[in-house]
Amino acid sequence: MTYSVTARRAELFGGLVAPLSVPSSESSGSELFRFLRERIRDRSADPIAVSTIFVPDELGDYNAVIGLPYESPSDVPVGDVFLQVPSGIFARFVPSGNLRDPIDDVWAQVDEATESGTLFRAYKEDVEVVTQSGEVELFISVVI
What we know:
The chain is of the alpha+beta class. Helices cover 21% and strands 35% of the residues. The chain is globular, with a radius of gyration of 14 Å.
């Protein structure tokens, strides 16, 4: 398990919602998430990286927005939701190659880092980025 700690600037995302989605490889690798990523990709003729933002609510449940970054709310397609992910400190995970599925790999690393006490999650917005070719980056909000 290796990760780097990085600062991310505030970013606006727009896309489709998957309600009550637990941040995990189980959710990210599900048929629903794959379907929603493909619907977002179908909107562009170019290969694009699709982001999944896991957003906690006041009850501790999470919802996910699967979509793209945008410059302003007026750029978000009609019918999509949008949200602002605030700037913050994140642990950045990339696949280590220990597991065949890159999504399983990054989430397994998060679990290992959390369980070992080397990473303290902030349980705020987490951002997963999946490219057209299947490369994955996962940004977990952390407490420093």
